[in-house]
Design the sequence.
């Protein structure tokens, strides 16, 4: 009776220093890029939306005008706030995607992207 070798253990990536197979895939660039992109996108989206919030305020006031005095003020306020929030969310979503893509390129080409969980050694693997 013959026994088969476990082929997966020989194909697993090993630490260049201690030869451990306990390897963590670092995604530092991707994480930082996504965070910075989301923040910048949210700020930019909010700024753009508040510039266009006048239209939201006018629309909200028009809708609110069906209820005299208070309806106009509430409608204008809700229209402005909603426009700002939607702009920030849209900007954050786009910024996250762009930032994560840029961060992945940095991970793939520049930063150490592997870490040995046994000895702590980090290295770059293409």
Sequence:
């Amino acid at each position: 009776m013959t026994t088969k070798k476990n082929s997966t253990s020989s194909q697993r990536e090993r630490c260049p220093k201690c030869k451990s197979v306990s390897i963590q895939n670092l995604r530092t660039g991707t994480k930082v890029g996504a965070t910075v992109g989301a923040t910048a996108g949210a700020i930019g989206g909010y700024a753009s939306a508040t510039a266009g919030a006048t239209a939201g305020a006018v629309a909200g006031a028009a809708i609110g005008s069906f209820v005299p005095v208070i309806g106009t003020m509430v409608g204008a306020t809700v229209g402005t706030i909603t426009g700002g929030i939607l702009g920030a969310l849209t900007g954050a979503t786009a910024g996250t995607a762009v930032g994560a893509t840029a961060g992945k390129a940095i991970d793939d080409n520049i930063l150490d992207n592997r870490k040995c969980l046994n000895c702590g050694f980090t290295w770059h693997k293409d």
In short: The radius of gyration is 26 Å. Residues 70-109 form the longest helix (40 residues).
